[in-house]
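Hypothesis: this fold can be encoded by more than one sequence.
Test: take the structure tokens below, design a sequence, compare later.
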């Protein structure tokens, strides 16, 4: 049944299906329970759709445990290294909303020398070129449309067609060289490179337009980079009415295949399908040295609200239009400053195990009670924003939620005053996880100790146990929040309140421990060391949280997207070791502890890439800050 559900998903995705057939399939999926088969980037995934796992993602199959790898479908014959996985949409957060597909392998064997020719200035800040490239490269780019990787965009209500996002440093490198040679001096100053994150967009005649919008510039203060121009590469040609309309600038009614349009991101623009065939184009941007950049905190607040409401739209679809409005406001603000915004604001009231709070993604309000500390308010907000998992379930799915629209936030203190929130977090003595080992005895190894071997007093087992404890301590002791099954344990010492700021302390990097052990006899089993328990840890890299109290409320403000900060979050499960008595084991016996440690290292210690933090694509969340991947 599961294999059939997996295969029918791709069969139905590949071509038109009747409404009855699609409804019958959805009913079968909704009636199917499934356990996760693997964990990738913190997400539990399954190899077929089910009532829980419905959000399809395409990943490199090598990221899957080889024990289950072959269960996952290979959706693209031209990219057989990609596997399709299904995630729980309720577990998604701003880090995992979008799926960036790695496609560099496709470009490795293809000559990618490119040249932009026949430059035409269609308006101020609007350039059009013809892309000259080899037949092999032209054929490969054309075949991107047929890779079967399209996914419904988050902002489907505000755009037509279909889209998938991919990463290719090789394609970006080739286009960077072509752009550097072709840009006029007035535009080329400060040019660095083409963003290696691309969106492949496909439209059929009759599809809805991509509505009028601005592309928000990506900005990275650490690297000194900003995007100033959008780059559109049309893989098919056709006519539209018009096919691309830059408000106050140029309009493109007819576009030839492999036309490249580069325009200043200040332009509002709208795209329409071709009238006479399929429209396929790639979108990315040109990255420049930033130079003088002025920061406006209001923009960061708007962007945080937009990202938060995007996540909440999984539970309340009507919030998608509010997130869309915020993204457009952010885009305009980057060029002209923040305006007054919409007349009414959107808030979300949540109740988590008796704790009530109101949020908009930037502001979080809690009732001020003796039972609910400021540190606990900060912890709940972090769990909510990052949608951390408790007992395998995303935090937001554990909350009761209602959407409230109001003119301002003035209603919140009185609203929360009637909510009797209580503490929902336990206190835990972390040292209890790490009992001291027994003192080593004078005994030799099991091979030379007939019937009287005690692994708890054997020096080499104790050494291995001590190393295993060191690994666990390095992750658990600095963690501000621990997950103990469905319970949440708070370490208040990791939340430092100073003046009007809450500092969340943690580790910037997780350090692996070498588990190598020297055994006198290679046949001695290492299974004397096993996993006593697993503890989920939450490590955060976030800016200080602005905190104040007024009108009986604790008011926290989280600007996660300030340009001077890079926000990180990593959830991992840490094994706690203990020594056990075992009968004699064969040398080939699998080592549960070692396997658990290896999986934890993969999950918790993989260096953070920009794509692990957030995917803020313009065309994904409708004109938010585009992320550069280098």
């Amino acid at each position: 049944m599961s294999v059939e559900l997996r295969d029918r998903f791709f069969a139905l995705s590949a071509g038109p299906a009747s409404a009855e057939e699609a409804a019958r399939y959805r009913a079968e999926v909704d009636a199917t329970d499934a356990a996760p088969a693997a964990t990738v980037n913190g997400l539990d995934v399954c190899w077929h759709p089910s009532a829980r796992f419905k959000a399809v993602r395409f990943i490199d199959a090598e990221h899957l445990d080889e024990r289950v790898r072959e269960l996952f479908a290979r959706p693209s014959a031209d990219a057989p290294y990609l596997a399709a996985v299904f995630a729980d949409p309720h577990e998604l957060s701003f880090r995992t909303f979008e799926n960036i597909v790695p496609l560099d392998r496709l470009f490795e064997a293809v000559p990618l020398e490119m040249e932009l020719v026949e430059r035409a200035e269609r308006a101020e800040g609007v350039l059009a070129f013809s892309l000259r490239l080899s037949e092999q490269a032209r054929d490969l780019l054309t075949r991107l449309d047929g890779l079967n990787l399209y996914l419904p965009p988050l902002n489907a209500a505000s755009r037509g067609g279909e889209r998938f996002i991919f990463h290719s440093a090789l394609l970006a490198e080739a286009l960077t060289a072509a752009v550097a040679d072709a840009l006029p001096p007035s535009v080329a100053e400060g040019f660095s490179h083409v963003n290696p994150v691309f969106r492949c967009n496909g439209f059929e005649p009759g599809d809805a337009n991509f509505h009028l919008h601005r592309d928000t510039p990506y900005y990275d203060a650490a690297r000194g980079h900003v995007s100033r121009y959008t780059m559109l590469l049309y893989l098919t040609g056709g006519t539209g009415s018009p096919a691309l309309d830059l408000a106050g600038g140029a309009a493109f009614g007819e576009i030839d295949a492999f036309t490249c349009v580069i325009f200043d991101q200040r332009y509002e623009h709208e795209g329409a399908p071709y009238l006479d065939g399929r429209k396929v184009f790639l979108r990315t941007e040109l990255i420049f040295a930033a130079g003088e950049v002025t920061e406006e905190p209001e923009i960061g607040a708007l962007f945080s609200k937009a990202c938060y409401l995007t996540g909440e739209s999984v539970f309340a679809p009507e919030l998608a239009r509010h997130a869309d409005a915020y993204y457009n406001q952010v885009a305009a603000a980057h060029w002209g400053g923040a305006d007054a915004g919409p007349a009414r604001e959107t808030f979300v009231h949540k109740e988590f195990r008796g704790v009530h709070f109101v949020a908009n993604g930037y502001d979080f309000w809690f009732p001020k009670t003796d039972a609910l500390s400021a540190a606990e308010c900060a912890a709940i907000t972090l769990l909510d924003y990052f949608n951390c998992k408790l007992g395998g379930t995303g935090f937001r799915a554990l909350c009761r939620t209602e959407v409230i629209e109001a003119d301002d936030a003035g209603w919140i203190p009185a609203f929360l005053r009637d909510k009797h929130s209580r503490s929902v977090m336990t206190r835990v003595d972390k040292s209890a996880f790490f009992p001291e080992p027994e003192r080593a005895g004078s005994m030799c190894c099991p091979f030379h100790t007939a019937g009287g071997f005690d692994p708890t007093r054997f020096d080499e087992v104790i050494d291995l146990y001590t190393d295993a404890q060191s690994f666990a301590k390095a992750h658990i002791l600095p963690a501000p929040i621990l997950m103990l099954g469905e319970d949440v344990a708070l370490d208040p010492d990791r939340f430092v309140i100073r003046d009007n700021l809450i500092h969340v302390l943690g580790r910037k990097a997780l350090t692996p421990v070498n588990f190598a052990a020297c055994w006198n006899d290679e046949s001695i089993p290492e299974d004397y060391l096993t996993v006593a328990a697993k503890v989920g840890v939450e490590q955060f890299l976030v800016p200080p949280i602005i905190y104040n109290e007024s009108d009986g409320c604790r008011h926290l403000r989280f600007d996660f997207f300030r340009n001077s900060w890079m926000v990180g979050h990593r959830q991992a499960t840490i094994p706690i070791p203990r020594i056990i008595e075992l009968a004699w084991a064969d040398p080939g016996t699998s080592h549960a502890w070692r396997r658990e440690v290896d999986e934890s290292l993969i999950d918790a210690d993989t260096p953070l890439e920009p794509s692990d933090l957030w995917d803020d694509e313009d065309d994904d969340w409708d004109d938010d800050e585009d992320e550069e991947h280098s």
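The two ends are 42 Å apart (CA to CA). The longest helix spans residues 319-336.
Hypothesis status: open.
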